[in-house]
Each structure stands twice: as structure tokens, then as C-alpha cells.
Amino acid sequence: MRGRLADLKQLGAQLISVDPHEVYSAQHFLKEVGVATEDLHYPLLLDPACVVSATYGVAFQMRIHTELSNRPATFVIDADGVIRYARRGQSFSDRPGADQIIEELKRLDAK
Amino acid sequence: MRPALIICVTAVLGLAWSAARTIAVEPTSFDAALRSFSERWSQDDWVPKTGVPSRFMRPLDDDGWKARMTAFQSAVQFGERAVEPVRQLLRDEDASKRALAAQVLGYLPARTAREELLRTAREDAEPAVRLYAIDSLGMLGTDGLNVDWKALADQQKNRDAKRHVTYASERANNLIAKEVIDQLTSWNASQMDTAQVGQPAPDFELSSVSGEKVRLSNFRGKSAVVLVFVYGDT
Fold first, then answer.
1. Contact map slice: A 40-69 vs B, CB within 8 A
2. What is the mean pLDDT of chain B?
3. CA B225 to CA A14: how far, in whole Å?
């Protein structure tokens, strides 16, 4: 999705990601993978209290990196604040592709 | 009896009644949350009856995670009084309860549980329990505690647990933010699992990795939002 930020921008959409870690380990992780926070170009939000992932029905559902984490999930919310698309993944990599998200966004525009 | 005496006796009884209620009601809510967690969070649930089988993913229709969230929140809301019962859970025979306890202690005023967390980080048979004990030590700070980080890292055969030793040792006394604990204690649990297609997106405000506060509803009327839940893979 990160590689398609320009397409999202063109469609007037904002990418937001939510990660269940504290700022401390999130910064560590970014350093490990060699990404500077200013190069993210979208907000990586931190939810170590797991309240947003519980609200969105994804908390504590996947074992990964020996942790109990949220399952991967993607929601498309229209400009009126209504959820128009939701996908809760059934495996690590079960996510909609960027093309599919862009299709969903175009469908919002068509209405 | 004189009226003053009657009033006095009534007042004392009233106080005793409300004290008894406080004692009786509050521990029950935490105990009940823990019991519900034990009942609804089965290890077997990792293998679903239908759908994509995975040892790593709970089925989509599972609700054990809600019981875990409730137990997590009620323990933290219980605050100081939860420390001792949660500390004792670190010795429970059920690894999922030990993992919950090890995780929860990091969000509690649990300095008195640090020795037991350190023992858990060294000795527990379950890597996830050790990893959470290590995290919680980092969240609580290790001042005054004699931690040999290198030995602790060497003891971890699990790669992730070893990595978390690095996190915990490098953060020194950069403790868990009060903001995080407040988010958890003030969260309205009736919001659980309320995000549905066709419905308004539940609002939230979180801090970003670069410290900026972002509120979802601020995008309303301006742009669509693609909200992606990740797990350290960005």
C-alpha cells in the first residue's frame, strides 16, 4: 500500500495504519527495517492499550513474532465517516491488494 | 431508643453495607472477567472448525479475544489491588493465563511484582510468557533491580524474546506512558467489536510513532480513509 500513496492521494484518500506496540518498540522496529519515521508519509498510529483494535474487532487474534497481536485488517471509510468496506484477514498475509483498495475507493467516488 | 441513636446506628449500618458492597462487588468483576477468559479462551480455538485452518489465527467467529480484552481492561482498572492476584497468576499451570498476567503487569503499578517477572522472564517454559514478562520489566523500569541483561538475552532461545530483551534494556527507565493506561481504563467496553460496514466508523484518537495526535473524525467531510491494522510490519 505504501508504494501506492500517490494513487491514494489522487483519489483524495488518507492512509492510516494502527500498530499495537508502544512507541518505544515501534521506533526500534522502524530502525531495524531501515525506515525513517519522516519517510513513512502517513501516520503510523500506536495502540498499545489495544482499545482501537478491540473496537474494530481485531485485537488478540493472531500469534506472530511470539506475540498475541491483532489480526491484519483493512477498513475503507468514506468522507462521511461511514465504513464502506471491511476485511478481517484469516492469515498473516490475507490482506486486500492495493489494486483492490483503489477499486473500493473509486466505487465510493462513483456514488 | 432516642432518635439520635437510631440515626447513628442507621448511619453505621449504612456505612458497613456500602463498605461490604464495595469489597464484594469490585473483586467479583475482576474475578468474573478472569473466569470468563478461562472459559472462553481455549487453546483449541486456534484450530477453527471451519474456514482456513491455522495454528496462528483465531477463527473469525471466535469471541475468546473479547474475554481477554475484558480481563485485560478490568485488571488495569482494578489498579494496585490487582497486582498481587495477577502476580500469583504468573505461576498458573495454564500458559495463556500466565501470558495474560505477564502482559497485564506492565500496565499496573507493579513494582512489587518485578522480581517475579524477572524469574518468569528467565524460567517460564512458554516463549510468549517470557516475552511479555520481559516487556513488562521494560515498562515498569528496572531501577533497583539487579538485572543482568546479557545473561537474560543469552537465556532466550526464542529469537523474538531475545529481541525484546534488547528493547527492554535499552529503554532504561523510559516507563510506559500514563496516556496508554488512561486509554485502557477509560475505554468504553460497549465499543467492543462495533465496526460494521454501513455504519459510522467508531471514532478514536491515537498518537503516531512521531508523536503527532491523530483523530479519525478529523477527516470527516475532507477525505476517505483507508484504515489498516498492522503488527510491526508497517
1. 40, 43-69
2. 87
3. 5
Q: How is residue B219 written as a grid cell?
A: 477527516
- Interface predicted TM-score (ipTM) of this complex, two decimals: 0.96
**What confidence score (pLDDT) does residue B49 get?**
57
- Per residue, the 3-state secondary structure of B77-114, as one string, reads HHCHHHHHHHHHHCCCCCHHHHHHHHHHHCCCCCHHHH
Of A1, A83, A92, the CB nearest to B199: A83
- Residue indicated by cell numbers 468504553: B188
Cell, residue B181: 493506561
Mark B96-112 as b/e (b = at least 16 C-beta within 10 Å). bbbbbbbbbbbbbebee
Q: Are A60 and B65 in contact (CB under 8 A)?
A: yes
B35 Cβ contact partners less than 8 Å away, ≥ 6 residues apart: none
**A66 phi, psi to nearest 5 deg:** 65, 10
Name which CATH class applies to B3-44+63-178.
mainly alpha
Non-local CB neighbours of B215 within 8 Å, separated by 6+ positions: B203, B204, B205
Is pLDDT above 50 for B152?
yes
> How many folded domains does chain A comprise?
1
Residue B218 predicted with pLDDT over 60: yes
Please give the share of chain B, as a percent, with pLDDT higher than 70. Answer: 82
Query: Rounded to 5 degrees, what angle do the CA atoms A4, A6, A8 make?
Result: 75
Q: Which of B74, B139, B231, B233 to mutate to test the interface with A (most CBs of A within 10 A)?
A: B231
Residue pLDDT, tens place only, B30-62: 788 888 888 887 766 665 556 665 678 888 888
pLDDT at B199 over 50: yes
- The radius of gyration of chain B's CA atoms, rounded to the nearest angstrom, is 22
Residues of chain A contacting B222 with CB distance shorter than 8 Å? 79
In this model, does residue A82 exceed pLDDT 50? yes
CATH classification of the domain holding A83: 3.40.30.10
Query: Domain limits at A11?
Result: 2-110
